[in-house]
Amino acid sequence: MNWSALQGLISGVNKYSTAFGRVWLSIVFIFRIMVFVVAAEKVWGDDQKDFKCNTAQPGCHNVCYDHFFPVSHIRLWALQLIFVTCPSFLVMMHVQYREERERKNRLKYGEDVKRLYLNTGKKRGGLWWTYVLTLVFKMAVDATFVYLLYHIYEGYDFPSLIKCSQAPCPNLVDCFISRPTEKRIFTLFMVISSLVCIILCLIETIYLVGKRCVKIGSRMQSSRKMQMTASMMNVRNPNMLVLEPLSDKRPNKEAVSPAPSYSVAMSKT
C-alpha cells in the first residue's frame, strides 16, 4: 500500500470537510482502515483451516463451513470500506471541476474577468448538494453492511460449538470455530466503529441542513425589514410629491367664465 498517496488523498478530502467530517475521516482511517489492515488477516486468516468437525466424512467440513460462514468477514469489511471512503473523493473531484472551470474562464476572457466562484471550496450550490448526498450515501452503506453482517451470521456472537446436519454429513456433527472470543471482540469493534461513523454523518447532515435553513431565514428576515423600512419612510415623509390623475386637474367648464371682448373692455374705461 502506498501510504504517501493515501495520505495525500486524505489531506485533500480533509481540506474541504467540516469539523464533523474531519472527525469521521480520522475514525475511518485510524480505527477502521488501520485496524483492518493490521489485525483482520491475523484474526480471520485461520478461520477455514482451523474449523474442525468431529467427522471424517469427505465434504462435510466444507459444507458446514460454507453454511455458517457464507461470506468472509474480511471481504465483507473490505467492500464496506471501499464503498464508504469513495464518496468522500467526489467532493474533492467537484472542487477540482470548479477550479478547472475557473481556469478556462480566465484563459478565455482574461485575468480581470469576474470570477465564477468566490471560493471554489465553499459548500454552496451544487457542491453543497454533492457533500450532503455523499453523507447520506455513507450512512446508507454503513447501515446496510451492519444489517447484512447481522442477517448473514444471525448476530455478532460466535459460539465455540456449532451443530451441523448438512449433507453429505452422515448425522448431526459438532464443529468448532478457532478463537471465537477474539473474533467476537474484533467483530463488535468493527460494528461499533461503523455505528459511530453513522452518528457522525447524521450530526454533520443535520448541521449542514440547519445552517442552510438559518441562512435562508436570515435572508428572508432582512428582506422583510428592508420592505418595512421603505414603507415607513414613505408614510413619514410629508414632502413627498403625490401625482394625481390628469382627469382631476382638468378645469371645470361651468365654473370658469369666458373672458370679455375687447370692445366691452374699452367702453368701461
What's the topology here?
Layout (H helix, E strand, L loop, with lengths): L2 H13 L3 H26 L7 E2 L6 H9 L4 H37 L16 H28 L7 E4 L8 E4 L3 H57 L9 H4 L12 H7 L1
Antiparallel strand pairs: 1-3, 2-3
Q: How would you portray this structure in words?
A:
The protein is mainly alpha-helical and 269 residues long. It has a single domain, classed as Up-down Bundle (de novo design (two linked rop proteins)). Helices cover 67% and strands 4% of the residues. Strand 2 and strand 3 (173-176) form a beta hairpin. Helix 2 (19-44) runs antiparallel to helix 4, helix 4 runs antiparallel to helix 5 (126-153) and helix 5 (126-153) runs antiparallel to helix 6.
Q: Specify Rg, calculated over alpha carbons.
A: 38 Å
H-E string: HHEHHHEEHHH
State the CATH class: Mainly Alpha
| Total helical elements | 8
Please name the CATH topology. de novo design (two linked rop proteins)
Distance between the termini: 122 Å
Q: Strand order, biggest sheet?
A: 1-3-2
**Uncertain runs with pLDDT below 50, 5 residues or more?**
262-267
User: Which range best describes the helical content: under 10%, 10-25%, 25-40%, 40-55%, 55-70% or over 70%?
Assistant: 55-70%
Shape: elongated
What is the mean pLDDT? 78
- Please tell me the CATH architecture by its name: Up-down Bundle
**Strand count:** 3
**Main beta sheet: strand number and arrangement?**
3 strands, antiparallel
Give the full name of the CATH homologous superfamily.
Gap junction channel protein cysteine-rich domain
What is the percentage of strand-forming residues? under 5%
**Count of individual domains:** 1
Question: Which secondary-structure class do the elements indicate?
Answer: mainly alpha
Subcellular location: Cell junction, Gap junction; Cell membrane
Family: Belongs to the connexin family.
Subunit structure: A connexon is composed of a hexamer of connexins.
Pfam family, one: Connexin
